[in-house]
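This section describes the prediction task in plain terms. A model, or a person checking by hand, is given the sequence of a single protein chain and must write out its three-dimensional structure as a string of tokens. No templates, partner chains or ligands are provided. The sample shown here is typical of the held-out split.
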Amino acid sequence: MSKIGNKKILIPKEVKVSINGDQLDIKGSYGMKKFNLDTKLFEVNISENKELSIRPKKKNDDIKKIWGMNWSLLNNAIIGVNKGYEKVLEMTGVGYRAAIKGNNLNLQLGYSHDINFEIPKDVKINVEKQTTIKINGNDKQQIGTIASKIKAFRPSEPYKGKGIKEKGEYILRKEGKKK
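The expected answer:
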């Protein structure tokens, strides 16, 4: 039995969910999301008091494994169109700067050249300070992927802590050489 899959998803007042065959259309203040669900395996019900439940039609080990995952993806989609998701990246290092130029995020990370990262159309990227980047959107997976791509340009190093990291992320620091 899936512990997460048994729970019901509460649908906020601002969100509208409609079932069209294998597809769930979720509309909210942050946009619209389409969620594909295999109706041969799962049954989706929306109750009158705005609760969404997902149940398997047959229970075997393989279906139990993906039951909780589908519940989580559906819950993330509902939260995403209602509130949205946000990640904050911090840059630490001398001369490390970020700026938005048109549809690109321009990063100066101590290399001999600037790095231009093209901003996808569904995502908003704001540079509050020159060293703080905010990524907003309604898709949790897409926001995490973009944040990891930006962090990969200059990962945080363990000696001085220079690089790009998420806000609140702990970098394990190492002691330098001893004489």
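For orientation: The radius of gyration is 21 Å.
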